[in-house]
Each structure stands twice: as structure tokens, then as C-alpha cells.
Fold this protein.
Amino acid sequence: MSQFSKIGWTDHTFNAHIGCQKVSPGCDHCYAEVERATMALGVIWGPGQPRHRTSTVNWRNPSKWHTAHEAFYAAHGRRQRVFCASLSDWADSEIPIEWTVDLLELVRTTTNLDWQMLTKRISNVVKRLAAAADWIREHATDTMSALLAWIEAWLAGDAPAHVWLGISVVNQEEADRDIPKLLATPAALRFVSMEPLLGPVVIAPYLPGWLWSQRQGGDHAPTIDWVIVGGESGPGARPMKEEWVVDIRDQCLAAQVPFFFKQWGGVQRRRAGRVLRGRTWDQVPLLAGSGAG
């Protein structure tokens, strides 16, 4: 539930809880629904189904990674990245709000980590932050005043520097619906994960350049900072065409936005590999103080 990750674009995965419901065509063959931990715990996917909070031992792991920052940085020349979450959605409205408060406090206090907060529910992010602030005001003591101030600053536009906010997009409809919402949400870094990619997607209007900036009325309008693409894997995997991936890569290259190609997917994922046009694409954003990615 939290470990050194096999996902190439992160170092660790952290699941504060397990369980979700399907909200996108990309969820049709959800790996998390049938993942070992999900099945072992008897977690049932769907609306109204209880989410499972992970163990206290699991919740201690990010603090351990935070403490190990200097050794990791010395070995790798960059900070550790933590993907939250692979077996749930941290912005799920059916998560008890006090669990979200606990997660936000964990994120707030582990500033040596770059938290990659990915969601299929970008419309919920500001709502959940506001609900967490309201819960603290109503239930918490002065010991949580620092967290309340942190959340209020985020909502006011001063997003935490070590939080990367990302959304899952699988087709053009989702891109046009959710990318503007992502760009309107306060964040230090914004990324889009297109996995599984189910069709061609034009994202150029949301990348650095005149189109989006002109539409928003200035050169400093928020844009996408990073793009991840991958195919679906496992039984029943839907095919991903090479031209879709190449086109997205070329849009990123033209805008000088880091591009990460995760996998071709398919029924036999390992055989398919992750080479695109003769090379791998492992680009990750370079942040001030973070070291090369």
C-alpha cells in the first residue's frame, strides 16, 4: 500500500485509503479494483461503499522518507517523489473528511518530499480543501492552527511548493472538460496523466505558448507543466495507436514541456515495453531546489 514504486515517474506510492468508484471510461478496467490489497481486504468499489483506511504503520512511511531526504538527494541529486494514490482518489467526496485532514497534515509536514497528487475529480479539490478547513475550525484544537493556515493559504492562491497537482485524462472530451479546471486550481506544478490513452488528444492550447495565454489575457496564465502517457494493460486492454502518442509527444516538445512515456500496455505489458520511435522518454519537471529529474 506504500512502497518503493514500480511506477517509473515516481519513487514511492502512498495510499491513505483504498476504495473508489468508476467515474471515467478510463476506469472501465480499473487495476486497483482487483489489486491484491483490495481483494485481501474485501474492499468493494462503488458509490456508498465504505473506503478502507490503511494501517498506522503505512501512514508512518512518508515521514520516514522525509527523514531520509539527505541520503536520497546525495545518491540521486534530486528529491523523492510520492504518488498519492494508486488504489483510491484523494479527492473522492466519499472519503471521511477527517481522513483528508490527516492526509493534508501529513503532506504539510513532509516538505522534503514532492507529493504527486493525482485525481480524476479535479472539481472536488477546492471543495475538499474548504471542507477540511471547515472541519478543523469546528472540531480541532489550536494544535491544528498551522494546518488551517496552510490550507487557507492554498485556497487563496499560495499553493504549497512541494505539491504537484495532476489529473487523469483519457480522451479529448475529458481534456477539454478538466484541463481548464486544473489550470484554475492553485498549484505549484500541474500535470496530466493520459493513462490509459483511449484516443487522440490535442493539448497544445493548454501548454506554454500564445494560444492559452492569449485566451486568458496574459503571458503568465497557468499552463500544463508535465505530461505522462501510457497504454492500458491487462486482460481486455484497449489498444493505443502510435500516432496518438507521437502527436502528444510532439505537442510537448514544441512547447518544451517534459514528456514521460510510461508503457505501451496491452495484454502482455512486459513484452510491449515502453520504447517510442527508438528511445525512451523519461522527462520529469525540473523544479528549483529539486535537482535534475
Notes: Confidence is low (pLDDT under 50) at residues 288-293. The longest strand covers residues 113-119.
